Structure to design on (216 residues):
């Protein structure tokens, strides 16, 4: 049974289901920080863990994640368990969590189970492997999508991503000097991590409200 960590007003107009990245749990410092920023905008956030990550809490060790394709049924199960009205639900996650969300998004969107997809630091490619792209399914993605990406993310810099073929449904929010965790170097960019998270949260709210307006 999927267990959720839920924050934000229970009567919020928008709920976002977030999955964690490959190496850190749903209550990591990074996941907590982005959740807090979203909640301050009046958004309800539900977080969940894939089984391999949840097992670390009871069994210890650092069990590696399965291939993203094998996590798709777990993500679909989390959507079903959340039982949230489709017009109010956006799915996504941090890095790998967002990638898995993107792999199940269209089947959920086409059946009106979700309104959109939010990816926080999308892993466009593995580290040090610029030719091994994870973008094929993004070329014809039909789900309205917002990807929040740091301009110096080693898994997809702005210069690299601008050369990729992405669906018109995909919008990109670039965060100046942000790394894979969206964190900038303040001395270089003039922005703090908190600044970028506030920008993300405000942009997500605006984008999500536009999606809601498109729904009957």
């Amino acid at each position: 049974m999927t267990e959720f960590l839920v924050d934000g007003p229970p009567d919020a107009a928008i709920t976002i289901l977030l999955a964690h990245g490959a190496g850190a749990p749903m209550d990591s410092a990074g996941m907590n920080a982005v959740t807090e920023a979203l909640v301050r905008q009046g958004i309800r956030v539900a977080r969940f863990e894939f089984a391999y990550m949840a097992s670390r809490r009871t069994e210890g060790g650092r069990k590696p994640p399965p291939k993203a394709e094998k996590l798709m049924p777990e993500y679909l199960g989390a959507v079903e368990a959340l039982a949230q009205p489709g017009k109010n639900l956006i799915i996504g996650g941090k890095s790998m969590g967002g990638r898995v969300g993107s792999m199940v998004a269209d089947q959920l969107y086409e059946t009106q189970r979700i309104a959109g997809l939010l990816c926080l630091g999308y892993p466009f490619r593995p580290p040090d492997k610029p030719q091994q792209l994870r973008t094929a399914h993004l070329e014809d993605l039909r789900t309205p999508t917002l990807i929040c990406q740091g301009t110096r993310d080693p898994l997809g810099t702005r210069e690299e991503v601008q050369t990729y073929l992405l669906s018109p449904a995909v919008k990109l929010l670039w965060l100046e000097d942000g790394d894979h965790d969206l964190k900038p170097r303040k001395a270089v960019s003039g922005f703090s991590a908190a600044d970028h998270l506030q920008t993300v949260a405000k942009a997500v709210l605006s984008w999500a409200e536009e999606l809601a307006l498109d729904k009957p």
Strands lie at 4-7, 15-19, 44-48, 89-94, 116-120, 145-150, 170-175. The longest helix spans residues 193-214. The chain has one domain: 4-214.
